[in-house]
Design a protein that fits this description.
Elements (H helix, E strand, L loop, with lengths): L3 E5 L3 H12 L3 E6 L13 E5 H9 L6 E4 L1 E6 L5 E5 L9 E5 H12 L3 E3 L3 E6 L4 E5 L4 E4 L1 E4 L6 H4 L4 E17 L7 E7 L2 E7 L8 E9 L11 H12 L4 E2 L4 E10 L3 E2 L2 E3 L5 E2 L7 H21 L7 H28 L5 H15 L2 H11 L6
Parallel strand pairs: 1-2, 1-12, 2-8, 5-14, 12-20
Antiparallel strand pairs: 3-7, 4-7, 5-6, 9-10, 10-11, 13-16, 13-17, 13-18, 14-15, 15-16, 18-21, 19-20
Amino acid sequence: MTQSVLISGGGIVGSFLGLELASRNISFQIIERNSFAPSKNDHIRSLTLNFSACERLDQLGIKTESSLIQKMKVFDGSGSGKLSFQSDEADIDYLAKVFSFTELRETLIKKVESSTSVGDEIISFQAMESGIQANLSNDSVLEADLLVVAEGRYSNLAKSIASENFAKDYEQIAKTFLVEIPELNTDEAIQVFYEKEIFALMPYKNGTKVNQFSVVWSMPKELAPDLTLDNLPTHLQKFEKKLSCKIQPTSELLSFPLSAHHLDEYCDHGVCIIADAAHSIHPLAGQGINLGISDAIILAEEIERAISSDKEIGQLAFLKKYELRRKTLNTSMIKGVDFLFNLFQQDNPYIRLGRNSGLKMVDKLSFLKKNFILHASGIQKI
């Protein structure tokens, strides 16, 4: 039985899903509304992919420059608590890799461009007895056995299928920019929780600069307007003191608001939702893109399994298998990150003391750290 998949959204996850399907000889077409137009600040944006996602990219033939993370350090900026992770604690070569957002997306797009239509969008669809019928903005109609919604956080198609069972505005802004730090190892990522701010550093290869790091700095909305390139060095001093280094900004500042959401359903007859369209998460654990890629991998596995069993891939009973495999893990990650965010926002001195003690205790428990690494790396999955 020959069956086809229609993907709405040609971003990183949508294109990745196309590659996954192509590797299994499954027919697909991607519909992407916007052409990918580069801007002068594209080089600032980075993505951190876990071990499993990186290994799968290699298997699919995606080759682009990246920086290895082999160590991760977490500091409580208001105390002496510290937690460290190393790849060899879990017997893996690295914890994660940091990619240029633009380079990775361009590489993926080129791999699937022959199956991608740019300039139109799917505005609605109707479920048929077998598959779906999609209506495009140019008044054309496409039919497929399965529609996959791989759009962004505010996807109208996703909203037509499911409702949110979790939605949160963190009342925070993330500032991202590039810095040079000669004193830090370039295989090391760092995260500092300082009062109501979260300051993350990831090693980042982009161009010829050495000892370059990508910063994602989460802060309350009321603090964000006061941060400019001119006063940035002054605001960085508290982190320089904590890390015993000099942080030299080398780029403009980009900003984006922080929120999280989760849908109560991932599928209906003939359609399913993946990645940001289904769930979004605070970036403090760097897991947003990884959850989306895991969605795509599991969905492709289930589609292949259904076709091999001569079953219709748009049947709700089949799609629920994908939902079952992904929803529990996504829920766990979203709630876990939300818990950590709330924990490090507390001003209570007793909670701060317990937080510091907890970090030190976990740092001594090798078995617990190993399980955490395997889970975060994507190796442990259903």
